[in-house]
């Protein structure tokens, strides 16, 4: 990690770690040898102590916000570790005399195992569960390869589980409040759109434009238009403005007495048709199913799903 990259971690992580634990990393912690892939003897530098810990003594972090690890990228990192060693030590906390828990560096740990290392260099910290969560979240938020939904989930966890206000969260991760707010708003979008952001089908810019539309049916329709027509962010913003100029239909309230079974059926239909389906059944078991249609293409899509 370069000096520039390290400083970009912001105040939050540094404030959580003891001062004698966070300075420049020695770049020759682990130089590979011709005969072995295991680590050399422990190294101590001016920044503090770095220990070499057996990989089978390290438990993963239960608070790890990251769930998706690119196998190809892990393989490339593994090959790099075989040649160059681990440049940046992991961060662990000691659970007992014979076991440690990962605070940050799960990607490096996985790649080290692939490389055949039996030991890895690590800083040893003292941290309670809340500090563990905050350290792990901040360390992961600063990564460049996290998708927007992973970042949003991490932000939300820091609000819900660490108890930070949005201003405090912004200070921790060196981002202004509006940026934090924009990420958190992504989690208010329908699951199918969140999945599209996560999988790279639409960008953060597309999502920010969609969020400005309050109606879920219209959000889903715009999302489908982006996918089908490969719309640019600017085109989506224009589409959102045009929709905003149209008269909003009066929203019908769902019956408050809908049973759990009928609600489950309604949700299943909404999921199947990719739009908000309304199921209206009276006390005699009679009623109707309403499927909103926003365009001719949307109608054709629904007819195909029905089999017409």
UniProtKB/TrEMBL annotation:
<dbReference type="GO" id="GO:0003677">
    <property type="term" value="F:DNA binding"/>
</dbReference>
<dbReference type="GO" id="GO:0007059">
    <property type="term" value="P:chromosome segregation"/>
</dbReference>
<dbReference type="InterPro" id="IPR041468">
    <property type="entry name" value="HTH_ParB/Spo0J"/>
</dbReference>
<dbReference type="InterPro" id="IPR003115">
    <property type="entry name" value="ParB_N"/>
</dbReference>
<keyword id="KW-0159">Chromosome partition</keyword>
<dbReference type="GO" id="GO:0045881">
    <property type="term" value="P:positive regulation of sporulation resulting in formation of a cellular spore"/>
</dbReference>
<dbReference type="Pfam" id="PF23552">
    <property type="entry name" value="ParB_C"/>
</dbReference>
<dbReference type="Pfam" id="PF02195">
    <property type="entry name" value="ParB_N"/>
</dbReference>
<keyword id="KW-0238">DNA-binding</keyword>
<dbReference type="InterPro" id="IPR057240">
    <property type="entry name" value="ParB_dimer_C"/>
</dbReference>
<dbReference type="Pfam" id="PF17762">
    <property type="entry name" value="HTH_ParB"/>
</dbReference>
<dbReference type="InterPro" id="IPR036086">
    <property type="entry name" value="ParB/Sulfiredoxin_sf"/>
</dbReference>
<feature type="domain" description="ParB-like N-terminal">
    <location>
        <begin position="51"/>
        <end position="141"/>
    </location>
</feature>
<dbReference type="InterPro" id="IPR004437">
    <property type="entry name" value="ParB/RepB/Spo0J"/>
</dbReference>
<dbReference type="GO" id="GO:0005694">
    <property type="term" value="C:chromosome"/>
</dbReference>
<protein>
    <submittedName>
        <fullName>ParB-like partition protein</fullName>
    </submittedName>
</protein>
<comment type="similarity">
    <text>Belongs to the ParB family.</text>
</comment>
<dbReference type="InterPro" id="IPR050336">
    <property type="entry name" value="Chromosome_partition/occlusion"/>
</dbReference>
């Amino acid at each position: 990690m370069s000096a520039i990259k390290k400083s970009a971690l912001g105040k939050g992580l540094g404030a959580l770690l003891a001062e004698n634990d966070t300075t420049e990393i020695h770049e020759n912690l682990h130089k590979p040898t011709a005969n072995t892939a295991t680590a050399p003897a422990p190294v101590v530098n001016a920044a503090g102590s770095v220990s070499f810990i057996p990989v089978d003594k390290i438990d993963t972090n239960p608070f790890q916000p990251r769930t998706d690890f690119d196998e190809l990228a892990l393989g490339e990192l593994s090959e790099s570790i075989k040649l160059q060693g681990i440049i940046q030590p992991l961060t662990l906390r000691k659970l007992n005399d014979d076991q440690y828990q990962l605070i940050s560096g799960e990607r490096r740990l996985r790649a080290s195992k692939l490389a055949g290392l039996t030991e890895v260099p690590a800083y040893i910290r003292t941290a309670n569960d809340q500090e563990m969560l905050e350290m792990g979240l901040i360390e992961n938020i600063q990564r460049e390869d996290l998708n927007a939904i992973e970042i949003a989930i991490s932000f939300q966890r820091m609000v819900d589980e660490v108890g930070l206000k949005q201003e405090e969260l912004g200070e921790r991760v060196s981002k202004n409040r509006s940026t934090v707010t924009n990420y958190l708003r992504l989690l208010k979008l329908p699951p199918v759109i969140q999945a599209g952001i996560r999988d790279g089908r639409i960008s953060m810019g597309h999502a920010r434009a969609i969020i400005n539309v309050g109606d879920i049916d219209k959000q889903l329709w715009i999302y489908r238009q982006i996918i089908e027509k490969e719309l640019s962010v600017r085109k989506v913003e224009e589409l959102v403005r045009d929709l905003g100029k149209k008269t909003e239909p009066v929203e019908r309230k769902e019956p408050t007495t809908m049973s759990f079974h009928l609600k489950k059926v309604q949700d299943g239909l909404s999921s199947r048709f990719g739009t908000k389906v309304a199921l209206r059944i009276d006390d005699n078991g009679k009623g109707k199913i309403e499927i909103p249609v926003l365009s001719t293409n949307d109608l054709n899509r629904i007819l195909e799903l029905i089999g017409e």
